[in-house]
Amino acid sequence: MEKVYLDYSASTPVAPEVREAMEPYFSEHFGNPGSIHSWGQKAQAALDHSREIIADELNVKFSEVVFTGSATEANNLVVRGVAAGSKGIDKPRIIVSAIEHPSVLETARTLTADGVEVVCLGVNREGFIDPQALKNSLNERTVLVSIIYASNEIGTIQPIKEVARIISEFRESKKKLSLGQRSGLREENFLLQYPLFHTDIVQAFQFFKMDLQELGVDAFSISGHKIYGPKGVGILVLRNEWEPYLGRIITGGHQELGLRAGTENVPAIVGLGKAVELVSHDREEEAKRIGSLRDYFWEKLKRAVPEIELNGSLGNRLPNNLNICFPNKEGGDLLIKLDQAGVAVSAGSACSAKAPKPSHVITALGMGEKRAKQSLRFTLGRPTTKEEIDMALERIIKLVS
Ligand code: PLP
Prior knowledge:
By secondary structure, the protein is α/β, with parallel strands linked by helices. It has helices spanning 16-22, 24-27, 38-58, 71-85, 102-111, 131-137, 160-180, 186-193, 212-215, 266-304, 331-340, 360-364, 368-373, 386-400; strands at 4-5, 65-68, 93-97, 117-121, 142-146, 196-200, 219-223, 234-238, 309-310, 321-325, 343-344, 375-379. The longest helix has 39 residues, at 266-304. Bound molecules: pyridoxal-5'-phosphate.
């Protein structure tokens, strides 16, 4: 039986070009990039090359790219780092959306034990935050806003540019207020810059060109294994001016601007650079190709099984994502039956697949836990073909009709 993998938001296969680029850095060029000798220099040059590719792609400075062990780690560094760096502020406020990845949401919630106030913005039934609600939540104590660019579960794309504009206007209004009061204290100056605006672009980066300047964002997180690179490597992009205001979470050596101590994973970083290069090479065509396959999939399935319903808007959504509610079917059960029929999908996201609770993202849509338990996520990827979609359709329809 030919198998069909439709879980590319959980992980992607390493591209052959990526594997080839990584190969020499396991045993041949194995030096520590921190070493002075030529072995070290060879490894350092490889890191520099990857950093250059990524900085160019995202329109940021070389020194604004920080390699991490995962996107989870990048999200932790920014959420925990901003909280730790804002010790002078009483009850600092962090604003997140209710549909963040757990590496943002749970991390922020954990910080409430240290006196951080977390404001969690709800989403409407279509899966979008309300920018006006975000505007109303900003106050003098707000140090961080973190809004996911596109949901890993339902694929909905948030109005990031609009949020950036609201934050920028808020900062300007604080500046004017302070100038009026003729305040010149350094502490007050940096209070003025808050909040930092971070967005997790882990799922969106492969489909949309990301320009930090153009978007008006201060920090991005990216993961290697979602873009046909290796697992266990990620990127935190952070504007240089914020670096002094981030508390250090992982301490030790001075790697990665001192923001992420620990010897860099050179082969993985080389692979990540190559993966970014490949994504930028055919991003638009791939988004179009995958988007039309996804639409074909949805139309055929909806016609054959009319009772199914989509979670989240179809209009403003990642081109590879379908999150479908199968009324009167138990999602976990269906997932196992589909796996036995050779079709790999997921219930919610991979990282919470083993958690017994229903998806916090589907429940945030306000449609109840029952719906969350009857829903499955299908995500297409670079290797997906029309033949595979037809095979998957046939097996799904047979199981659910
Ligand atoms: N953010 C989003 C949106 C994700 O989908 C994931 C992975 O599921 C992560 C962060 C975490 O990435 P990593 O597996 O590199 O820790």
